[in-house]
Amino acid sequence: MQTDANGEFAFPDLAAGSYNATIDVNDLDIPDNFSFSGANQTVAVLNLPAGGTQMVNFPFTITSQTITVQARLGRDSTAATGISTSIPATTSTSLPLAGVILDLYPTEADAIALTNVLGRDTTDAMGTASFTFLRSADTSPGGGQDQIVFATFVAAPDNFHVVNGETRIEIRYDPSSATGASADEFDFLNTHVTMKFDALTESGKALAGWAAALWLNDSTATAGRAA
Question: Residues 222, 197: contact at Cβ < 8 Å?
Fold first, then answer.
């Protein structure tokens, strides 16, 4: 019998009597980041009455944790003033930023001293960095584990992006889940922009020989003039 999506198993239509429930802790279907934490692999289920039920729980411990962190343009999932995108207005205007290098540490003191790093990753095309570490390595300042880690900014993908906010994020993860995501993100701004102007007639015909000018923070200035 295998457990279902809820981690439950059932043996229906048993005759009244005494039964033993046993788990195979060497089963290859058990995920690598879990380990059996019970004292005994066999549990006696005694005196099951006709039509009755009994529940047996086999305890497992999460041994490794996966944490994801985002890097995006803007602040808190909202594009910063002056950033325009081609994303439809019905979706977030915060764009993912690839190539950001991040580190993960067990405590804030470690993040400041750059000690006991849990892992390093670079954000992908979706702006996501992923860290997998042993929970035993996630020590708290007072000893033991506290389900709190700290992600720190290491480097931007190029000289055209700067951090727009904090460079260290505290991340709390659920002790009952092997995966988690940071509730906050690293935010960035562009420091350079490339603009393109097209000079066209009303019919769409290109007008050669026109010069363009760009004024910062002045929407009233004329952006084009005849050469």
Answer: no
Q: How far apart are CA 227 and CA 208, in angstroms?
A: 9
The burial of 199, by beta-carbon neighbours within 10 Å (0-12 exposed, 13-18 middle, 19 or more buried), is given as: middle
Nearest in space to 185 (alpha carbons), one of 99, 74, 66, 108:
74
Q: What pLDDT, in 10s, does the model give residues 49-85?
A: 888 888 888 877 888 999 999 999 986 544 433 333 3
The closest of 93, 91, 72, 71 to 82, measured between CA atoms, is 93
Q: What is the rounded radius of gyration, in angstroms, for the C-alpha atoms of the chain?
A: 28
DSSP-assigned states of every residue in 19-60: EEEE--TT-TTS-TTEEE--S-SEEEEEEEPTT--------E
User: What CATH homologous superfamily does 64-190 map to?
Assistant: Immunoglobulins (2.60.40.10)
What is 63-106 written as a DSSP string?
Answer: -EEEEEEEEEESBTTBPPTT---SS-TTS--PPB--S-EEEEES
32 token code pair: 């690598």
- Give per-residue pLDDT as tens, 21-40: 888 878 887 777 777 777 78
Distance CA 198, CA 201 (A): 10
20: CB partners within 8 A, 6+ apart: 42, 43, 44, 45
DSSP 3-state of 154: strand
**Residue 168 near residue 152, CB atoms below 8 Å:** yes
- Collapsed DSSP state (helix, strand, coil) of residue 113: helix
Domain ranges of the chain: 17-61, 64-190
